[in-house]
Specification:
alpha+beta, elongated, disordered C terminus, four-stranded antiparallel sheet, 9 strands, about 280 residues
Length: about 280
């Protein structure tokens, strides 16, 4: 570690600071993992995740020790760098001022050409120009990234979940088709917190919320109004280790077409459509 973080290190100081900051951040994450270990285990639904969280404890302890050691070297590097900047800044500013004054005193087409012209100055200060162009490029890229992130709207989700783990709630926008696909057994769908049971294992007589339609593995739906949607699945004990998943697409129509009216109990039960799956007693 002393070969990387030290006065005689071959690694430039800026890279030492960046590397040290990364290590300190990893140390912070490790400390949070140890402090909130109980909460993390409580919110972990898979057996594999519980085992991984436990195995990360000694790793986190080692990272914290390394981060504590690096902290002293990183502090020394920052102080030394600040000292050099403060010490050398007046000389750099003074030299640049001399160059700019000479150019100003030799301004004019004839004099400036004798001095080498603009191309000579740009070649003389090509490192400065390179830094300016680099900063300009980084600024443009950063602005474009922020702008695109602000305008970006997600249209695809693939959710992995374990036994007894709640699935996220989605906002279905009005008049936009959403396609759902999953090989996991779907128990019910929550629309604005109202439960519609679509399980093939339940009969109409078992629960008034049971629809007379059996949803296939892949279907699409479009709602006339903004709707909060959440999916509930059957899970087995094996799903504490192996996750299940489902996929959701916006602006896509594939699989069986489901309409908003299909979620109206009486209409579905009294007038089932022949093109749909009908529910039968096992």
């Amino acid at each position: 570690m002393s070969n990387i973080f030290g006065k005689d290190s071959a690694v430039p100081a800026p890279f030492q600071i960046v590397l040290g900051a990364i290590i300190e951040y990893l140390g912070y994450l490790s400390l949070q993992h140890i402090i909130h270990y109980g909460e993390i285990q409580t919110s972990t639904y898979s057996t594999g995740g519980v085992i991984i969280n436990f195995l990360l404890l000694p790793v986190a302890a080692v990272v914290i020790i390394i981060a504590f050691i690096v902290l002293f070297s990183l502090t020394a590097i920052i102080i030394r760098s600040l000292y050099i900047i403060v010490k050398e800044a007046p000389n750099v500013i003074r030299n640049e001022a001399v160059v700019l004054r000479q150019i100003w005193e030799n301004r004019g087409i004839g004099k400036f050409q004798l001095f080498g012209g603009l191309s000579f100055y740009l070649h003389l200060r090509q490192r400065v120009v390179a830094y300016l162009l680099a900063c300009l490029s980084i600024g443009i890229i950063a602005w474009y990234f922020v702008f695109t992130q602000h305008e970006y709207e997600k249209t695809y989700w693939k959710i992995h979940f374990y036994r007894n783990e709640p699935t996220p709630e989605f906002i279905f926008k009005p008049n936009i088709s959403y396609t759902f696909e999953s090989s996991a057994d779907l128990h019910s769908i929550l629309l604005n917190d109202y439960q519609y049971i679509v399980s093939k294992y339940m009969d109409l007589e078992d629960n008034p919320a049971v629809l007379s339609l059996i949803f296939p593995d892949k279907w699409h739906v479009k709602f006339p109004d903004t709707t909060r949607v959440q999916f509930i699945f059957y899970t087995d004990p094996i799903n504490e280790i192996f996750s299940q998943s489902f996929e959701l697409w916006a602006d896509k129509e594939e699989g069986l077409k489901i309409t908003y009216n299909d979620f109206i109990f009486e209409g579905v039960k009294q007038y089932p459509k022949t093109k749909r799956y009908t529910r039968t007693r096992n």
